[in-house]
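Subject: MULE transposase domain-containing protein structure
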Amino acid sequence: MSMNAERAFENQEALLEALKSEYKQGKGHIEFSGAYVTPDVAHIGGDKQTANELASAVWETTKRRWRSKDSRDTKQGIVTKWFCCQDSGHRDQPKKSQKEGIQNRDKMPMQLFDCQSVMRIRVKHLSGNERKIHVHLIHCATHPAYYDIDIPLDALEVIKNSLWSKPGDIAQNIRTTKPDWARIKTYQVRHTWKKLCQDKWRICDDQLESAKKLLERHESTVEMLCLDEIEGVVALGFGLRCVGERLEDVVEVGLDATYHTNAKDLELYVLMAEHDNTGIPVAYLLLSTATSIEQLKRKRAIASFLTVIRDKYNLKPRFVVTDKDLAEISAAREVWPESKHVLCQWHLKKAVSDRAKQSKLATTRYNAERASNAYTFIDPLFKPRVRADPRDNEGDVLVVDEPPVVMSVPHDLRPFGSQATGPNYISLRLPPRPPGDPKPSQKSILENDDDETESEDEDGSKVQRVFCPEHLRQPLVQMMEKHADAHPTIRGNHAPSPEGVREWAVRNAYFFCRENELPELWAYLWENWYRAGRWELWARAPNAEIPRLRTTMIVESHWRHLKHDWLHLWPKMRLDMLVYTMIMKVIPKYKNVVDLVLEPSGRARDRATWRAAFKAEWRELELRDTARPGKFPYKRYAPDPHKWICACEAYLTSRFLICKHLIQSCHPVSPWFFIQAERGRTAPFWVHPSLVPLTNASGKTTKPPDFLPTDWCPSSTQSSDDAGNHDDAQSRELGATYATKMERMASDLEGLASYVRYQIPFGERRAYDQFQKQCSKALDFYSDILERERINNSQHAQRPKTWENFHLMFIYTKPSNS
C-alpha cells in the first residue's frame, strides 16, 4: 500500500480495527495510512491532547508503544511525529547523573530492534465544525510487543486504600485481582507504597530533625528523652508512654543493640521489660559515636539514656540481661548498682566456643600471682609459655598492660638436675651459650617470644601445641554451662553458698586445663570469666534469686519482628521512616500486650506464647520413665516437690526449672495450671492450688487436688489461631492414653500397608525399593516378634534369656490358639 493511498474510515474504532488486522497478518513491513472525520467539539487539552489519546489507542491496538518526538502547529491544526519505543535508531543515549553522592549503576535497557518506525498524526480543522484526523504509520520489522511495567491507575487506587497493610500482602492481593495485573512486581508496589506514605513521615530533608519532629507529633504515644550532650555523639532516645507509665514492679530488663537499620548508620538500642517471661519494649535509643573522640563515649551515652528512663518511669530492676558488650554492662551497673547483671548464656557459649576454635596460643595477659592468692590450689607456675595478646579480651576492650610478675626463688630451694618424669614434665634442650655472648635480659626474652605452637616431647620429637584440642571444645562449653546454671539453692557437688559454688567452678576449670596441659586456655578462662569482677557477670550463683531470663532472646525476638516484618523491605531506610515504622507498625502491638497485662481477657489465646511450650514439655515429662523413689539414681537426686528442687542435670539446665522427678512426685495438675502459674525466682519456683505433691512434709499420702468445676481446655478457644491449633494437637498427642496411642499407631501401619498394596498394579520396581529401604527396620522388628512368638508357643524351643533381644522384653506375643 502506498503512503498516498489514504483509506477513509467512519470513525476511530474502524481505523484501529484495520490497523490491528495489519499487525495480525504478521507482515515484516507495515505501511498504513488512514483518516476519519469527527465533530469539531471543544476538547480539554486541544488538538495535541487529541493526538496523544489517539497514540495511546494505537499502542493498545498494536501492542507497540509510540513516543512523541516533536509536534508543530499548522494553520489548520497540528502535526505530531512519533517513533516506536523499541526502535534502536531513535534510542536516547543514557546520561550519567551528575548529582553529588549518586552511585551510577549499570541498567540494562529493554531489547531494541531496527524497525525504522515513524508515525505521523495530523489533526486538521474543516469547515462545518468538523475535524479530520490522519494517521500515517510505517513499521519495518516484526518484534515482540511492548511490555508495560507501569502500575495501572486503578491498581494505584488499591494501593492507596491499603496503606496499613504490608507491601508484600498488597502486591499479592493486586496480582490475584485481575489477570493483567499479574505482571506487577512486589518491588513496584513497595516503592509506590513508600512514596504514598512519605508525606506522613518525611517532614524535612534532614533525617535527624525530621525524626525529632515526628516524635513531637506523636507525643501521646512516645516521648522524646532529654539526654546528656556529648561532643561528637549523635543520640536520639524516646520512651513508650503506653508502657513506661503503666507497667509497674519490673524485676528484669534486657538491653541490646542492632545495626544497619537506617541510612545514618545509627545503632538502635532497646530496653525491654520482662513480664511473665515476655519482653515489652520500654524505650529506644538511636546512637552514633563515630565522630566523637571523648573517652568512654558510648558508655556515657548509654548511661545517660538508662538514667533518664530510670528516673522518668521509676524503673529499678533487680536483674539486667545483656550480651558481652562491656559498654552496656558498665552503663547498666552504673545506673543500677544494686541489680544483678546477667550475661546472655548464648553469647557466653558462643564466645568460648569461637575462641577455643582459634589456633593462636597468645591470649589475655595472665596474672598468676593474683590467681594463686585467690585459690591456693592454683599453681603460679602453670601459666602460658607465650607472649600475651592484650587484644584477646572478651568484651571488646583492651586490657591495661601490667608489668610482668618476676618471681624469685631462693638459691637453696632451686631444683638442680631434676629427674622428674610424667605427663606434666617437658624436657628442653638448650644449646650452650658461646663465650663472650651477653646474657639475654628479661626484656629481650619477652620481646623475642612469639606464638610458638611447637614444643619438644621427652624423646626430643616436636609436638604441635594447640589452644584447645577439638575433642575438648564441646566438654569445655558444657562445663561452663553447668557453672553458669549452678546455684546454692540447687543441690550439687559444691557447698551451698555463693563462695562454695565459685570455688567448685574454678577448681573444675583449672584442673580441666591442668590435666590436659592447656595453660593458655586456663589464662583465657581465668582472666575473662572466672576472676573476681567477671564471674559475677555470667554466673547466677552470686544472687539469692534465680532470674527467669537466661538469654537476650526476648530482645532478639523483638529485632526479628522489626527486621523480618518491616526493615528488610527497605535496606538502610531514612531515619524518620524508621521512627515512623516503629511508632505506627511495631509499638501498637506492645500497647495491646500491656492492655492485656493490666486487664486480662481470660482467654488462653491471649496468654504468653511460652506457655504452649511449657505445657508440651510438662506433659511429655509426665510420661517419661523414672526410677522408683529410694532407688538409684532417684535417691541421689533427692527431688523435693515442696521446695521444687531437684539435683538432676535436666532440672539444672531446664528453661522452666522442671524435671520428670518433680513432676511425677505430684498429682496431675489442672489445665488451669498452665494458664495461671508463674515461675518464681526463689524456692518453691512453681506454686499453684492444683500442684500438690503425692506426700506431705511428714511423708503421708495426700489427696488429689479438686479440679476447677469446668472441663474447658484452654487451647480449645484457639480454633482460629494456627499456633493454637498446633498446640492443641500437640497437647492431645502428649496427653493421650496408652490405648489411644497404640490404636493410632496400628491405624497408621494399616494405612501404610494399604499404600503398599496400591503400588502392585503399577509394577514400579523403584517403589518397592523405597518401601523396602524405609520400612526395613520395622520389618526386622516384625520378624523378631514372629520368632519370639514361635519360641513362646513351642514346647521344645529353648526359652530366651531375660536380657536377650532387649527390644522384645516388653512385647506380649499372641498365644497359639489366637
